[in-house]
Design goal:
- The complex is a heterodimer of chains A (386) and B (306).
- Chain A is of the alpha+beta class and 386 residues long.
- Chain A has a domain at 85-216 and 284-316: Cytochrome-c3 Hydrogenase, chain B (Orthogonal Bundle).
- Chain A has twelve helices and ten strands.
- In chain A, the strands form four sheets. Chain A has a three-stranded antiparallel sheet.
- The longest helix of chain A has 36 residues, at 166-201.
- Helix content of chain B is 30%, strand content 21%.
- With 306 residues, chain B is an alpha/beta fold.
- In chain B, the strands form two sheets. In chain B, strands 3-2-4-5-9-10-1-11 form an eight-stranded mixed sheet, sandwiched between helices. Chain B has a three-stranded antiparallel sheet with strand order 6-7-8, with no helix packed on it.
- Chain B has two domains: 5-154 and 214-293, 3-Layer(aba) Sandwich (Aspartate Aminotransferase, domain 2); 156-206, Nuclear Transport Factor 2, Chain: A, CATH 3.10.450.750.
- Chain B has helices at 5-8, 14-17, 31-36, 42-53, 102-107, 121-132, 158-168, 243-254, 270-293, and strands at residues 22-28, 58-64, 75-80, 115-119, 144-150, 176-182, 185-190, 195-199, 224-227, 236-240, 258-261.
- Chain B contains nine helices and eleven strands.
- The radius of gyration of chain B is 19 Å and the shape is globular.
- Classes of the chains: A alpha+beta (386), B alpha/beta (306).
- Chains A and B meet through α5 and α6 of A and α5 of B.
Chain lengths: 386, 306
């Protein structure tokens, strides 16, 4: 007879969640429900009837950790809706700003999962110090390029509000080099920590938390709506997805559940490596590995952009409102972030839809937990940085 | 042997001038600065020295274009990172310029780490407030290295200044080469060499309203205050308030960048600065009282009243 175990709230991740597990007599999870218990804030409803410029700034407030991605996806959606082409330097700076955000968000997650893998207090303190140094540099990039560390106001419809100076470019490059060294150390540390965790717990990394869901990613560092076929995306209400027999559970899930081809998909660092580098590592702990590798890659890409950037080029396109519909996609630290905007001829929003990155992963987390011991449920959930 | 500023400086009335280490009179020794500066060119000299020595990597000031097609002489705030560009900002603009707004740009897209700021007493206060409560200005407090204030009795909104120049003085804004206030008069110097002046009393109706509740004449919260009052033409009165300010000025004297004199040797002297500071305090204190009778908040105490 299966026993029901509730973990509420789940801890050490960014959002708010609750795990409901049906556990068999041997302690293995038969069925898992991972419920998003964040309050409904109604950004989509708030956007309706308001000017595009306002909405693009407002939606950044969806998240305090990765705001750059919402600002970028929203700007992209409006640009496509109104046929605006941002200048090259604007696009580069936007990518750079979001990369700074990715660097700080990825390592922040390593801080949150530290307790899963490391016991030695001294090592923990060292790691936290290193992580905070890297985060500081990531935030510095957002500060300088975005004009503000949290909710960067320079991201605009049409590009970026201003270019950076030559001095700023030099300083950013120097700081990113520092981050590269620190991150290499941090990467080694994470790899060792995960490996020894597997040894101690007797876990096979290749099969632990394995699921067979497909991967979804659009771009290694930016975002590309052409890579998603939106005819194949459906968003289900929780009651539709979980069924009437799980009504009580479904009612606790705030938000919709996006499916691709009718099934849950995984988004995020591992998905990006799976789609663009054809890796196929199914053990769930590999997500930590790829997240760490992706942080290094983000630092490299950021330095590349700085190298290519023309600091005296224009960054913002002039535009006139125009009626239309557009989809903006940006690869957030946590996965594919989708904003859809429909505007009228005055640039007023008629309809606005958001599929935030983490929402894709909620049902996938359930698949990863199912079949593993209930004791590991939170460790598996935390691999996803929800 | 360069002079020791401590020997030259005198102390004035702190009640009128605000806390300070000492006061002296000075001018830049650089002819290029004196050609374009308002008086002794102290602010420009400090900015050029600081940027060249690497003490600052950004200088927040205001620049006005006398030939602007839309609004001639309307100043805009700028962040200057190149010492060669400092002189573009030289000279007083007798109208509001939101210098504080450029600080954000200085610490973000310009990535400045040590900033020198120059502004009117109210702007100096704003910067100090931001250093205590950096709301929306993260990493800002420690990046401001030097705050310079200019002596200020009152200021004019841009349209007010334009009315004074064009209606009262009868000079077209585009003809103006320099403004000045001194000897009880408002002066306009034109590009063709004409000099027009009107009694300062006639300009009062055009003053900005907020200036009437300000009791800060000498930018009391600055590191260094500079202004023409008290010193002869071509010289500036300098009030040193902090050890940091003193250190910079002393080094400039040692390097021969500043020519200094005791303010007791010159006319009209420190007495005038103290007198005018007291005039501003008394006059505006009365205005504040009148406003209080109307139940309007005391400036600076808006949040303490329930």
């Amino acid at each position: 007879m299966a026993e029901t175990v509730e973990l509420s709230p789940t801890t050490r991740h960014e959002g708010h969640g609750k795990l409901v597990l049906l556990v068999d007599d041997e302690g293995y999870v038969e069925r898992a429900f991972y419920l998003n218990t964040s309050a409904i804030r109604g950004f989509e409803a708030m956007a309706k009837g308001r000017p595009a410029e306002f909405v693009q700034v407002a939606v950044m407030r969806i998240c305090g950790i990765c705001q750059a991605t919402h600002g970028t996806a929203s700007a992209e959606a409006f640009e496509r809706a109104m046929g605006i082409e941002p200048p090259k330097a604007g696009r580069q700076l936007r990518e750079l700003c979001a990369l700074g955000n990715r660097i700080q968000s990825h390592v922040l997650h390593q801080l949150l999962v530290l307790d899963d893998f490391v016991e030695d207090e001294k090592e923990k303190v060292e790691a936290i110090k290193r992580i905070q140094q890297i985060r500081k540099i990531g935030q510095y990039v957002v500060d300088v390029v975005g004009g503000e560390g949290i909710h960067p106001p320079n991201i605009r419809i049409g590009g970026m509000a201003s270019n950076i100076t030559e001095t700023a470019r030099r300083k950013l490059y120097r700081r990113l080099r520092e981050a590269r060294d620190l991150m290499e150390e941090q990467h080694e540390f994470m790899m060792d920590a995960i490996e020894s965790y597997c040894e101690e717990e007797g876990i096979d990394m290749e099969t632990f938390g394995k699921h067979d869901q497909p991967f979804l990613a659009t771009h290694p560092t930016y975002g590309d709506p052409e890579k998603i076929d939106f005819d194949r995306v459906v968003e289900l209400r929780p009651i539709e997805y979980y069924g009437k027999e799980n009504l009580e559970i479904a009612l606790e899930h705030n938000g919709q559940i996006p499916l691709y081809d009718g099934v849950p998909v995984e988004v995020g660092p591992r998905a990006r490596y799976a789609v663009f580098d054809a890796v196929d590592a199914r053990g769930v702990l590999y997500i930590h590995v790829y997240r760490s590798m992706e942080t290094l890659a983000a630092i490299d890409r950021a330095m590349n952009i700085l190298d290519e950037l023309n600091t005296s080029a224009p960054t913002l396109a002039e535009w006139e409102p125009k009626a239309g519909f557009g989809i903006g996609v940006h690869e957030a630290p946590r996965g594919t972030n989708v904003h859809m905007a429909e505007v009228d001829e005055k640039g007023i929003v008629k309809n606005y839809r958001i599929i935030a990155a983490s929402t894709w992963n909620f049902p996938t987390v359930e698949k990863a937990i199912e079949g593993e011991k209930a004791d590991y449920a939170e460790v598996i959930m935390r691999c996803y940085d929800i | 042997m360069a002079e020791d500023l401590r020997d030259v400086m005198v102390k004035g009335d702190e009640e009128a001038l605000g806390p300070h280490i000492g006061v002296f009179t000075a001018r830049s020794t650089d002819g290029r600065i004196l050609k374009v500066s308002q008086d002794g060119g102290i602010v420009s000299a400090v900015a050029i020295y600081g940027l060249e020595e690497g003490i600052f990597d950004g200088f927040v000031a205001s620049v006005a274009d006398p030939d602007d097609p839309e609004e001639p002489w309307k100043p805009r705030p700028v962040v200057i990172t190149d010492p060669d560009e400092v002189l573009e900002a030289a000279g007083t603009k007798y109208t509001y310029c939101p210098n504080v707004s450029a600080l954000k740009e200085a610490i973000t897209t310009k990535a400045c780490e040590s900033i020198m700021f120059v502004g009117t007493p109210c702007q100096v206060r704003a910067v100090r407030k931001l250093q205590i409560v950096p709301l929306g200005m993260r990493h800002f407090p420690e990046k401001v290295k030097l705050v310079m204030g200019i002596i200020c009795m009152e200021n004019f909104p841009y349209e007010g200044l334009r009315s004074i120049v064009e209606e009262l003085c009868g000079v077209w804004m585009r003809e103006v080469a320099k403004f000045d206030i001194g000897k009880g008069k408002f002066w306009v110097f034109t590009k063709d060499g004409d000099v027009v002046s009107i009694p300062i009393d006639e300009t009062h109706p055009f003053e900005g309203e907020p200036c009437h509740v300000c009791t800060d004449y000498c930018a009391e919260l600055s590191d260094i205050t500079a202004g023409s009052v008290g010193s002869p033409d071509g010289w500036s009165t300098v009030i040193v308030r902090t050890p940091k300010g003193l250190e910079i000025l002393q080094d400039m004297v040692d390097k021969g960048l500043l020519e200094v004199k005791s303010i007791e040797e010159v006319k009209p002297g420190l007495g005038l600065v103290e007198k005018l500071a007291q005039v501003k305090k008394n006059k505006n204190a009365k205005e504040i009282e009148e406003r209080e009778e109307l139940n309007l908040p005391r400036p600076g105490e808006v949040f303490t009243k329930v």
